[in-house]
Inverse folding.
């Protein structure tokens, strides 16, 4: 029979739970009941559990983070020395470390997680979960070596514990880090090994499909990082088919899968350590849209990129609304709350580039406004994506003929970037700025950074683009034979991987070169397919360029009807771009071209930055 003291605090705990689960919840009374428990000097186990409950409730329902932190620290301090108290001990460590991370105090979170990992070796679930959590912190800090070492520990532990599913999850997580760290030669064999394990999976079909999506996603990223747009198609198609399988109505939702795994534990001995997933299926759906958009942009299918971006953004908004009302994703490898905003930002960055190509800068600026809003909402997101934002503004500035501002933006992106591909991309565009301004000395100083023979990148598309820049320089210097040699190399590489926009740009420039040499036949052979391809993309800038060349070619051929058609086409494209140019220059977002330091400006005020006159 419970003592009088036990009855008091047990009653208070029951009341607190009743207030928490009532509809609507009465969080104030719930907290008061839990705080009252301490008046009865309960045993350490009850005290620690109550501190943990208070910490969780204060985090999820109030803004009193300091008090939540105090309770969680008490829960960890009281519980870490108590045996057979894993649920409270390790949850306290995990939640407290996560709170420290949110407060940018990883120096406090990492020691707690290391201690918890040391203490949890007998508990398969918590040991794996804590390893994932600490690895994620190291990865966030770009300490990929430490993160990879932890994941190796996870692989070995999962092997010893006979949890094959989680072993593959650790392996794929390490593959992801190696790809992020651009260690392609290390990632490839590990990705192949993990893929073999997935293909020959003998366990739960649900687990196999989740691992398959993760594996295929990494393979797609591997190809896209290398600019291999054609080679990626089989993997991308398999990924799209696999996500459709997971998204079928007959497929269980994530809550049901957790219940299913728990049942397996009781019935067939399935290990608790296998109760993980990379991310929920609804977010996997967004991820597949995202890589499809990335592929479409690289391949030059702007309409397709636009279509899938719209679908992905709608899905993200649905999930954000859902997250505000219910939190069903508790057993995951990563914290899901900010990741939707990361996906949203990446989609916006890609669709902005599409708008530039399609000659719709005004709409791109509206989407840039959404980028600014997201970054102001999430400071960490702003810091990690700042180089990309400067690059986008540089592309916009260049399209508006604001070359000095474009130079400042690209230079800032180069200075801030820690991503090799982005650094190379910004340098290539800076080279175009110097060429258009006839700044040969500055271009020559940049030449070593963009030499296609020694380019510091694994990207096939960036190397092809570097040859195009060399051809463009030779063209401006009227070294036509040399220009043709570079452009033919660009075409060979672009055709090998279906890089349609690079192909159209190279063809139209070759057409211009042959026109300058007076070879109208060869010029026509280049410009005609360039125009067809540009119309398919669609790339209004190449269409404008090609229609101008066609006008001259038909005049040389004494074909006034086609000359007039080409002229009218050129005039139409000119009017579209001029109208868009004027509309964009009047928008407050246009003032971003002068931002290079500090926080992002307030776009609601026209006076936030003074706009420079157009060149």
């Amino acid at each position: 029979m419970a003592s009088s003291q036990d009855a008091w605090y047990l009653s208070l705990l029951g009341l607190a739970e009743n207030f928490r689960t009532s509809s609507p919840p009465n969080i104030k009374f719930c907290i008061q009941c839990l705080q009252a428990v301490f008046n009865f000097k309960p045993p350490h186990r009850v005290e620690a559990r109550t501190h943990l409950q208070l910490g969780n409730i204060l985090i999820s329902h109030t803004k009193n983070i300091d008090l939540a932190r105090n309770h969680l620290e008490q829960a960890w301090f009281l519980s870490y020395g108590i045996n057979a108290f894993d649920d409270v001990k390790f949850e306290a460590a995990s939640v407290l470390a996560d709170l420290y991370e949110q407060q940018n105090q990883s120096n406090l979170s990492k020691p707690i997680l290391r201690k918890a990992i040391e203490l949890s070796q007998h508990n398969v679930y918590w040991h794996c979960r804590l390893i994932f959590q600490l690895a994620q912190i190291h990865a966030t800090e770009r300490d990929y070596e430490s993160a990879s070492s932890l994941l190796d520990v996870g692989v070995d532990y999962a092997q010893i514990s006979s949890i094959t599913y989680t072993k593959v999850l650790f392996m794929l997580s390490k593959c992801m880090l190696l790809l992020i760290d651009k260690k392609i030669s290390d990632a490839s064999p590990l990705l192949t090994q993990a893929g073999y394990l997935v293909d020959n999976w003998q366990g739960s079909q649900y687990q196999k499909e989740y691992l398959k999506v993760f594996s295929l996603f990494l393979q797609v990223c591997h190809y896209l990082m290398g600019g291999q747009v054609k080679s990626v198609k089989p993997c991308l198609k398999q990924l799209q088919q696999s996500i459709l399988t997971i998204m079928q109505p007959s497929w269980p939702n994530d809550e049901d899968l957790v219940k299913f795994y728990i049942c397996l534990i009781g019935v067939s001995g399935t290990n608790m350590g296998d109760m993980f997933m990379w991310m929920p299926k609804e977010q996997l759906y967004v991820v597949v849209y995202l890589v499809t958009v990335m592929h479409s942009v690289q391949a030059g299918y702007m309409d397709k990129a636009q279509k899938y971006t719209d679908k992905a953004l709608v899905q993200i908004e649905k999930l954000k609304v859902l997250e505000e009302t219910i939190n069903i994703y508790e057993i995951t490898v990563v914290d899901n709350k900010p990741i939707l905003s990361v996906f949203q930002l990446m989609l916006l960055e890609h669709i902005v580039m599409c708008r530039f190509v399609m000659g719709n800068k005004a709409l791109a600026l509206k989407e840039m406004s959404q980028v600014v809003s997201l970054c102001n909402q999430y400071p960490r997101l702003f810091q990690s994506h700042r180089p990309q934002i400067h690059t986008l503004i540089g592309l916009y500035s260049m399209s508006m003929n604001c070359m000095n501002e474009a130079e400042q933006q690209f230079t800032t992106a180069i200075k801030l970037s820690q991503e090799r591909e982005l650094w190379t991309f910004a340098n290539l565009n800076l080279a175009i700025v110097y060429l258009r301004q006839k700044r040969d000395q500055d271009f020559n100083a940049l030449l070593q950074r963009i030499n296609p023979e020694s380019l510091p990148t694994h990207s096939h598309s960036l190397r092809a683009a570097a040859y195009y820049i060399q051809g463009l320089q030779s063209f401006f210097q009227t070294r036509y034979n040399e220009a043709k040699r570079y452009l033919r190399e660009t075409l060979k590489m672009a055709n090998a991987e279906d890089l349609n926009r690079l192909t159209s740009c190279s063809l139209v420039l070759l057409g211009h070169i042959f026109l300058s040499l007076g070879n109208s036949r060869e010029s026509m052979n280049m410009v005609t397919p360039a125009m067809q391809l540009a119309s398919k993309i669609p790339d209004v800038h190449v269409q404008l360029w090609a229609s101008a060349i066609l006008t001259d070619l038909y005049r040389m051929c004494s074909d006034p009807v086609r000359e007039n058609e080409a002229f009218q086409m050129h005039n139409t494209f000119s009017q579209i771009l001029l109208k868009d140019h004027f509309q964009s220059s009047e928008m407050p977002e246009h003032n971003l071209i002068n931002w290079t330091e500090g926080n992002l400006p307030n776009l609601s005020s026209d006076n936030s930055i003074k706009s420079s006159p157009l060149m």
Summary: The two ends are 87 Å apart (CA to CA). Residues 256-270, 326-337, 605-615 have pLDDT under 50 and may be disordered. DSSP finds 27 helices and no strands in the chain.
